[in-house]
Structure formats: C-alpha cells, structure tokens
Amino acid sequence: MKIVVTGGAGFIASHIADAYINRGHEVYIIDDLSTGQKRNLNPSAKIYTVDIADPKAAQLITEIKPDVLNHHAAQMDVRRSVADPTFDARINIIGFINLLEACKDAGVKRVIFSSSGGAVYGDREPIPATEEHETLPLSPYGVSKLTGELYLGYYHMAFGLPYVALRYANVYGPRQSTLGEAGVVAIFISQLLAGKSPVINGDGKQTRDYVFVGDVVQANVSALERDYTGAVNIGTGKETDVVTVCKLLREGVGSPVEAIHGPAKLGEQRRSCLETALARKVLGWRPEVGLREGLEQTIAYYREAGPA
User: Fold this and answer.
1) In the CATH scheme, what architecture does the domain 2-171+210-235 have?
2) What is the pTM of this model?
3) Residue 230 scores a pLDDT above 80
4) Which one from 20, 121, 141, 172 is the annotated catalytic residue?
C-alpha cells in the first residue's frame, strides 16, 4: 500500500514508518521537523518537510493518492496548549482538517489517527477507562485530540471515509524526546545517566498506564489490516505510579542518585489507565512488553544513542 505517515520523524511515528517499510509498504513522510529528529527518518521513505497546516501538505495528499493516512503530526505539549490554545488548535485541528479535506478528494481508504486516552477522558472514575467513558478533557490539547475524533466521525458519516482513532496511554521507549514536556521515562533516564537527581512532581503517587512503543507500533500495523471504524484504547490496563517508575529506572541504570520531590503541577491528572478489551476484539491486539522489560530496552537505547 501507499501510506502517508505524518510526524514520521517523531518518537512514535518513526517506529511506525519503519514497521510499514519492513512490511513492504510504500511510505511517504510529512514532517516539518519542528520537534522530530532527522536521525529518526527511515532512508527508504520519501520525505517532505512541510507543515501539516500548509496547503502544500494537502497538495501532497492529492498528488500521492495514498491508500492510508497515518496521522501522528501534532502539537503535543499540554502546557503549551494551555499557554497558547490558538497555536495548539492551528496544528491539531486546522492542520488535521487540511489533510482530511485532501483525503476526501484523493480516494484515501483509511485514516489512522493518534489520539490520547489520558487527555480525552480527563480525571474521572471509573478506572481503567473504557471507550464508553465520559470525555472531559482538562486541557486544550485534550480538546483538540477529541475534536480530531469528532471530525473523523463527520468525514466518515458524510463522505464514507473509514478511520480508527487509537487512544494511547502513556507511550514510552527508544527515540522519545528528553526535551520540553517529554515523557517522564525519557526525562528520568536522561537525568540518571547524567548523574542528576530525577525531579518527581508532588508526592509521585499519580499513576499512568505505561505502554511500550513497540506495542503501539503493532497496534498501528493491526489497524491497517482490520476494518473497524471508531475509537480504540491502546494501553496495558495497569496503573503504575511515578515513584515506582523512578525506582525501576534507578535500578536499571544502576544509579545511586536519589530522586527529589518538586511542587505538584497544577491540574495534573491523579490517575490514568485504559481498558483494552476492545483492542483485543477489533484489532486482535494486546500489549506484549512488560514495564520492566520495556524500561530495560529504553535505557539501553539512551546509553548508546544519547539524549534526543
């Protein structure tokens, strides 16, 4: 198949592009390299350095006429979305509509959309959250991701464009950025390898559902082969608090450095965890990599590659 992967120089999408190429698909990457890394780009892909909100990105979809759009390009910094919701909406909403309009006219057969299980559900019981959980985003980022899903529903209803919205838990693994508001795993590993004390926000008892990037890639591969349309949670169904993650990383790195506790972040979710029964049913997918194993692979990557 011809597949356009947006954000293909980034953490998750670069792994997805690799997997698609390894399976013989023809991959085109659209990435403005504002946060992605050139070192993540697969040389077998055709690369276009374009902003997804630029009309040139829509023109590329029209010219390539891909079978599938795998959309991972996004403004993903929650705090930036709070500080500048207009910028967040320009990328995550207007940019996505720009591509969807092109998909509608280019005969795209399927859209795979990276959504956020933590951000769209908000901080409400019951936990773990199913896809039927009430959606109450706590940030403009969460609002924009949910809006993307709603637009997909519209394009499916109005134009018959099939899609799957993969609602990710907290994805971690090799290639995750250690800069800005990155994942806590990447940040802690970077600090520990540098001999610095990891800084835990608040008491560190806030929980997340940590899913390894390799498992997320497999979900994106399965989404190519299944015809389900709608939202699907991609996580492990297991909660792990930040203190425990830090402890496992200190053991994995072999660091004697103790963590320190900083102030709690205002508005941070206390608990987040996803139920994944639907993914097993409609994608034939389940997580395979346990947290300890995934953290070991991630530490090994940063030891060799250095911080991203």
Assistant:
1) 3-Layer(aba) Sandwich (3.40)
2) 0.95
3) yes
4) 141
